[in-house]
TrEMBL record:
The gene is METTL6_1. The keyword Zinc does not apply. PANTHER family: METHYLTRANSFERASE-RELATED, TRNA N(3)-METHYLCYTIDINE METHYLTRANSFERASE METTL6. GO terms for biological process: methylation. This is Methyltransferase-like protein 6. It comes from Rhizopus azygosporus (Rhizopus microsporus var. azygosporus). It holds the Pfam family Methyltransf_23. SUPFAM superfamilies: S-adenosyl-L-methionine-dependent methyltransferases (SSF53335). Keywords: Methyltransferase, Transferase. The lineage of its organism: Eukaryota, Fungi, Fungi incertae sedis, Mucoromycota, Mucoromycotina.
């Protein structure tokens, strides 16, 4: 992740912004993963049945990663959404981490 964020910083013009949105900590998917200990690869990192991985971000985690690369935080928050699976007639609480970061101007502004 560090490498990807640094690449974004390097190609972005001063004053440019990055919009970030991904799974938030304690999302319903993470709760389901945590019930199966064989799915956990590390802190907030899980493997799906198809072999792909899912990471669940806290707002503090996202801010520290982007700020370490030189970005300033415009905003960073959790977004709560309720989704409905009509076929299974179930409602699921979703949590996303959403943030906006800005590359500082060359003069530090």
């Amino acid at each position: 992740m560090e490498f990807a964020i640094k690449n974004i910083y390097n190609v972005l013009k001063p004053g440019g912004r990055v919009l970030f949105r991904d799974y938030g900590l304690y999302d319903e998917a993470q709760v389901k993963f945590s019930k199966a200990s064989d799915k956990r690869l590390g802190d907030n990192l899980y493997v799906r049945q198809d072999g792909t991985m899912s990471y669940f971000f806290s707002t503090e985690d996202v801010k520290s990663r982007f700020e370490a690369a030189g970005f300033s935080t415009v905003n960073c928050q959790y977004i709560y959404r309720e989704t409905t699976n009509r076929q299974k007639e179930m409602r699921i609480d979703r949590i996303f981490t959403q943030a906006k970061f800005e590359k500082k101007n060359c003069d530090g502004l």
